Every structure is written in structure tokens, then in C-alpha cells.
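hiii so um. not sure if this is the right channel but i have a protein structure encoded as C-alpha cells and i wanna go backwards to a sequence. like what aa goes where. can anyone help
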């Protein structure tokens, strides 16, 4: 079974990406280096 995330707050939604940018260094961090397939990211709903 996959992980379950709490429902997104109003005006937001979850997206999943195989990489994310580290806010401290600006480098791309790949989820596979941490044994994950993707990172969950909460974004504004358009």
C-alpha cells in the first residue's frame, strides 16, 4: 500500500515529483537517492 497524505487545505493540492530543489543550496535532490520514488509537494490550486 502507498502512503496516505492528509487532504490538501482549501486552495492547495498535492503533486509528486521525482526531484525537488534544496532551498539552502539550490541543488536538485533526487528522491531515488533516499529510497523514494517521488517527493510530495503541496502547491497552490489553479
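sure thing!! here u go:
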Amino acid at each position: 500500500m502507498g502512503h496516505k497524505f492528509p487532504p490538501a487545505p482549501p486552495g492547495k493540492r498535492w503533486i509528486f515529483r521525482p526531484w525537488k530543489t534544496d532551498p539552502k543550496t539550490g541543488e536538485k535532490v533526487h528522491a531515488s537517492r533516499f529510497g523514494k520514488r517521488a517527493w510530495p509537494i503541496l502547491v497552490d490550486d489553479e
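oh and The two ends are 29 Å apart (CA to CA).
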